[in-house]
Design a protein that fits this description.
Oligomer: single chain
Structural class: mainly alpha
Largest sheet: 2 strands, antiparallel
Shape: globular
């Protein structure tokens, strides 16, 4: 079974940015989406924000 949630480390791998920058992106997406601190982001939400194709992301993660 594949994961459906994304963590800052995954964003760092996808974008090539540092972990700290990826954490900022992660928190920005959560703020825009109105998520609470304990809630996770889905792959779809991250792909939509970054403007990337979900199928391409699956190969990296």
């Amino acid at each position: 079974m594949r994961r459906i949630c994304i963590y800052p480390k995954d964003i760092a791998r996808i974008t090539g940015k540092s972990y700290r920058q990826s954490l900022r992106i992660y928190n920005t997406i959560k703020r825009i989406r109105g998520k609470q601190a304990h809630q996770l982001l889905s792959m779809e939400e991250v792909c939509e924000y970054l403007g990337l194709d979900k199928e391409q992301i699956k190969t990296v993660i």
